[in-house]
Amino acid sequence: MATTAIQDASTIQANYMKLLVTQLQNQNPLEPMNNDQMASQLAQLSQLQQMESMNSTFAKVLSSQQLSQATALIGKSVAYLPEGADTATWARVTGAGVVGGEAVVQAGQVTLTLDRIQAIAD
Length: 122
Fold this sequence. Notes:
The protein is of the alpha+beta class. Helix content is 46%, strand content 25%. A 5-stranded antiparallel β-sheet has the order 4-3-2-1-5. Helix 1 (9-26) packs antiparallel against helix 2 (35-72). The two termini are 41 Å apart.
């Protein structure tokens, strides 16, 4: 898996605070930092944290909704396209769960993500 340069808001804020303290300790007393710019940066960091929190909450809601949809399929037959096949196969859903953060159903001997299901029948 590739390493990414993306950091969460908490890490960014901690790094910013370290940098800010270092700047304040080493600033020229005759040319102090611009307070407006510092306040603006702190407000942007706060907004970033709030957006990250909302994103996390929405991800949890989405996961819960997908699991609910998967459990509603228990007892129903679903059509899916097996790997390398040209025609869909039907199987009865016997269970549902979450694997790797994604909702799945057990259909016959196959575990399917919801996006692989092509049709549903009672």
